[in-house]
Amino acid sequence: MKNYFFVFLFLIAFASNAQNKPAFGVYYNPSFTSRITQANSDLNWLKKEWDKLESGSVGYSVGAFAERTLSSKLSLRAGVGFSTFGERVDSLSDFGIDKYKTDYRFMEVPFVASYYFGENKNRRPYFSAGYTMNYFLNKSITYSMVGSNREEKTMIKGDEKSINHAVRFAFGFDFVLDKKWSLRTEIFANQFVSSLTNDGVRRMPFSSGLSVQLRKK
After folding, report:
1. Bridge partners of 89?
2. Which structural domain, as residue segments, surrounds residue 132?
3. Domains held by the chain: number
4. Cys-Cys with 85: which of 63, 161, 165, 205 at CB 3.0–4.6 Å?
5. How far apart, in whole angstroms, are the C-alpha atoms of residue 64 and residue 80?
6. CA 112 from chain center: how many Å?
7. What distance, in Å, lies between the first and last C-alpha atoms of the chain?
């Protein structure tokens, strides 16, 4: 957790060094994880088999952020939150398993730059791009046996790397509610650029979804 201590200090400096008062807000991002597992070129046979088993699943992220306005068109925000990426595996009935779902759980620290365009000050479209550092917490496995309606759930640490990296792109609208509050809605895509594990089967989640952000100036 030492890395997060330094990130926390950075967020404090980010907010306090702004020439004008920074804005603060909260966000909630429901998403659909369409893919987690990838095989490298040496394991194409495994990739073909795994593609038949793996299905996408829902996830979300929630957190808070501080934002600094750099100009009338450009802003930079940094935050901290919690996120999950889901993976569902089908066709395990031969092993006596009817349902098997894994939720990878992270603490996330996003850094995002937004560029605004358009003349309407009450409804401003924007494009954003950024980087997210993901600190792996644990993974939750939910499963049920064939012929049973009872779901079992367990939490394990696994052999995933502690620090993981992702890039994020989005397009949305910033709706001004009044002099202090604004509401943002955006469509985003999030792609891990580092594998969760060091083995031959890379796990690099890709998700997309809708982000809702409430911001106080």
Report:
1. 54, 100
2. 2-216
3. 1
4. 205
5. 6
6. 13
7. 31
pLDDT at residue 132, rounded to an integer: 96
Task: Output the CA torsion sign for 61, 77, 191, 213.
Answer: positive
42 burial (CB, 10 Å; 0-12 / 13-18 / 19+) is exposed
Phi/psi at 179 (nearest 5 deg)? -70, -20
How many helical (H) and strand (E) elements, i.e. helices and strands, does the chain have? 2, 9
- What is the rounded CA–CA span in Å between residue 138 and residue 115? 35
Q: 126: closest CA among 176, 61, 79?
A: 176
Beta pairing class for 54-69 and 151-156: unpaired
Provide the 10 A C-beta neighbour count for residue 144: 16
Q: What is the pLDDT of residue 151?
A: 67
Residue 19 DSSP label: S
CATH of the domain at 125: 2.40.160.20
Q: For residue 9, what pLDDT band results from cuts at 50, 70 and 90?
A: very low
Q: DSSP E strands: which ranges in 40-162? A: 54-69, 74-89, 97-116, 123-145, 151-156
Does the reported pTM lie above 0.70?
yes
